[in-house]
Amino acid sequence: MSEPLHDVLLDVRDLTVRFRTEKGAHTAVDGISFQIAAGEVLGLVGESGSGKSATSLAILRLLAPNAEIGGSIRFAAGDLLQLPESAMRSRRGREIAMIFQEPMTALNPVMAVGEQIAEAVRAHHRSLKRDEIKQQVLRAMHDVALPDPERRYGEYPHQFSGGQRQRILIAMAIVNKPKLLIADEPTTALDVTVQAQILALLADLRRSHGLAMLFISHDLAVTAQTANRVAVMQRGAIVEMASTREIFHNPQHAYTRSLLAAAPTMRTDRTLPLATV
Which N-terminal stretch is annotated as signal sequence (predicted)? Predict the structure, then answer.
């Protein structure tokens, strides 16, 4: 396991998430613990169903009503699980923001993108005037390198490419200058070239905005381009956590080695089938 961090921003301890159904209870997250320091990127990696997304939604308290959450999630010295809902709403989008993997389902198709980003500002800055909000939105669109934001402010999601729609979601996430950004598979729906551009953008934003980030992915190779440390998740548990370099060069857990073997490289023998996890 990694050494204790200094300047801890997010401290998750013994987090458990169970879903109650008519057939009984299903444990999605089984007592995991991790920390993220200010300005750090922690990669949370595992296959589908390993509990990654349930973990991120638990941090934001956005799980379905049939979910039961245990443990503690300390952020900026307070336990998010103990906050009243009104206080939690004030933190979502302002101190902790999230970007999702599929922008077409996350964006409203009949609302101009500029107004969608503006809604994120209004939710936390009700005293701002309309022109002030618009200027804040345009700055965010500039920050994510959307071309000609003044002209495209009034356009709709279908008028943008997949990569540009993801940039719009990132603009919505950073417009209020949060301390922590949760990125849930933010490049999965994109082709390789656009994926590289979005990863580079996130790295730039991390430096320019001083962001800490929880980067969630099933792909260790993608995570290696972004994260300082990696936590590997399997069946609701973290089975290994170390620096990105240690994970790649000296993996300790069999599941981590399987994930690495399942990712093709330039040295992979193309005559052999890829490993499965």
Answer: none
Fold observed for domain 1-95+182-263: Rossmann fold (3.40.50)
pLDDT, one tens digit per residue, over 158-191 is 999 989 999 999 999 999 999 999 999 988 878 8
State pLDDT tens for residues 5-61: 668 999 999 999 999 988 889 999 999 999 999 999 999 999 999 999 999 999 999
CB 59 within 8 A of CB 53: no
pTM for this structure?
Answer: 0.89
Helices (H), the chain: 52-60, 85-91, 103-106, 113-122, 130-143, 149-152, 162-174, 192-209, 220-224, 244-249, 254-261
- Nearest in space to 188 (alpha carbons), one of 223, 142, 140: 223
Token pair for residue 150? 């003044």
